Amino acid sequence: MTPRFVLVHGAYHGGWCWDRLTPILQVRGAAVSVPDLPGHGGDRTPSVDLTLTLYADHIAGAVRQAGGPVTLVGHSMAGAVIAEVAERVPDLLTRLVYLTAYMPGPGESIIDWARRDGETRARADKVLFEDTPCLAVDRQTTWDAFYQDAPEEDLDWVFPQLRPEPVAIFRQALALTPEKFGRVPRDYISCRQDFAITADLQDSMLDALSARRTWDLDCGHSPFVVCPDALADILMAGEDKG
Fold it and tell me: What is the pLDDT of residue 240?
């Protein structure tokens, strides 16, 4: 059976961030979809309309269009998105893969966990963007927190494409049930040099909401840019193990 991946980018980014990983997975025989979340990448949904609910509805639509059972991968903030997608379409998912991601449980929000991360370097600024309260990161924070192990030319590619993220996304509590979300297997890929979601916080989230399997990568927050081959190895190994 052809492995099918839907890759969901994190805050500020777009589907473009998977550009290095996608062809590696495809060469290995996988089908890959990299949708933009509403308001990101090429999608022009106004910021005032963006909610976690809208994100999850949009990605659930991408899963339905994938043509078969899907491994749903969520990076960073998108850990909350993929959880909500599992609540919507559990029968279409083979597993969830949290990629150095927030992993809130039922009734929790991203901010519930983010505020516990005293060592994070991801210090965002509160801004008003499109008349919407948002968080934004400057170039230095982007490098320090998300791409500290990347060369500066990668930052030159990434930073101009980032956009502010509505504060509401981080505050919305997840509505998850054991009957739907709870029956989809969960895997976690932990980036041990992550300065945005630190390894200690990742470990704490895994203590609170267990994963079936975990893998470690010795890199920072953005392995799809810095070490896409190693990330592809893990994703495909997970497919082989079922």
Answer: 65
What's residue 67's pLDDT? Answer: 86
| Positions of the chain with pLDDT lower than 70, given as ranges | 240-242
Backbone conformation region of residue 33, classed left if phi is above 0, alpha if psi is from -120 to 50, else beta: beta
What is the distance between the alpha carbons of residues 33 and 118, in angstroms, rounded to a whole number? 34
> Residue 54: how many CA atoms within 13 Å on its side-chain side?
16
Contacts of 179 (CB under 8 A, 6+ apart): none
Q: DSSP 3-state helix, strand, coil percentages of the chain (rounded to 5)? A: 40, 20, 40
**From CA 91, how far away is CA 100, in angstroms rounded?**
24
Domain hosting 92: range is 4-241
Q: What is the CATH number of the domain that holds 33?
A: 3.40.50.1820
Query: What domain count does the chain have?
Result: 1
- What is the residue whose two structure tokens read 């979340």? 37
User: Residues 6, 14, 42, 167: is their CA dihedral positive or negative?
Assistant: positive
Residue 241 is predicted with a pLDDT of 54
